[in-house]
UniProtKB/TrEMBL annotation:
Family matches, as InterPro entries: Dcc1
Keywords: DNA replication
Family: Belongs to the DCC1 family.
Transmembrane segments: none
Keyword 4Fe-4S: no
Protein name: Dcc1 protein
Any one GO CC term of the record: chromosome, centromeric region
One Pfam family this sequence matches: Dcc1
Biological process according to GO: DNA replication; maintenance of mitotic sister chromatid cohesion
Organism expressing this protein natively: Saccharomycopsis crataegensis
Lineage, opening ranks: Eukaryota, Fungi, Dikarya, Ascomycota, Saccharomycotina
Signal peptide bounds: none
PANTHER family in UniProt: SISTER CHROMATID COHESION PROTEIN DCC1 (PTHR13395:SF6), SISTER CHROMATID COHESION PROTEIN DCC1-RELATED (PTHR13395)
Amino acid sequence: MDVYTSLQEDSSYRTIELNDDLLQIVTTGSSPLFFKAPLKEEDGFAVLCSNDKTFKLKRKNHSNTVLLGYHEFTQDDMMTDNKITEQDVQFKKIVTFSSFNSDFECKLEKGSINTSSLPIYTHESDPLTFQPQSYHLRCSLDELIDDSPISSAEFDKIYYELKGSEVNGFACILSDSMISQCLTRIIMTIQALATTAGKDIDDASNYHNIDPRILCERINDDNYSYSVVKTVVRKFSSQDDEQNFSLDEKKVARWYGIEALKIHAKKLVAPNEFLIKWKTSFPQFYNVPIELRWLQGYYAKPLINRIQYFPKDFLSMDAKKRFQELFEVQGTWELEDIEPFIQELNVKKLKIDKFIIKYARKKTEGKKVVVMAR
């Protein structure tokens, strides 16, 4: 083998092993690709993103490996360059080689958004002068997208579920009270629009094909800007098209149920009594079905036929300690009741039964599976 020149090594270059998804994107040109990383290392990892997918970059070390670069000549090349021979066309020619001690493999990953440092926008905030405090992250929504290890399509879906919005040019999180007040205003405005159109106020179709811009114009309140109304509509909706949305009855009912738990179930309360409180928390004339199981993960049953508001926010992130905390509040749990409290700790995605038996024991009682301390 003839070596024509030896180049100085440049360690700034890295190679990436393309998986099938990325190879298809590169060969078809169906989407641009972006390297992204969070502002802080502890907030995530470097990723490669297409428009709608996020791939985690993981360094993979090699030993005794050489990277070879080939060039393939074609018959057309031979016709345009008389230096290319038939032998060149038949055999691949090595044009470069180099030592190769590592590369990056790409693994499809769920993107993430760290909203913990974003300012909170409440109903007491002035939308015209709102700005983050010095200890908050000060950035626009576009800047937050650029600095989050997540594709733009995934961001667009997840951000609103996290109550994310933009006020006065700053990315922010809407407070629970702001969400509740805005949601109530939205429902009442939809009802008013239906009445004006001569429709039955109880008609479920009133809550379909909702345009946030029209709602914002009708509400006509600086506290409920288009971005705020859009956040609330999207948080509680399924998307019909690029502009219109339909309110999801279960999502709406569940929100009011969680808020009702905070108010009416700080102390033990009978389930039937709570259901009445939950129902009366809805805006007037808004009538949708409710089921207590929709609130699993937000209440415990310290006594038979009694429930109490019990969020997981203050529970330990250590699996063993969390199970201990759960059993201190409630000695025996039904499987479907305890699962929402522990599923985030099942990072290896084990079957829930296998995960539970590592820290507790379970048994079948009739048609129910119950979980208890060892």
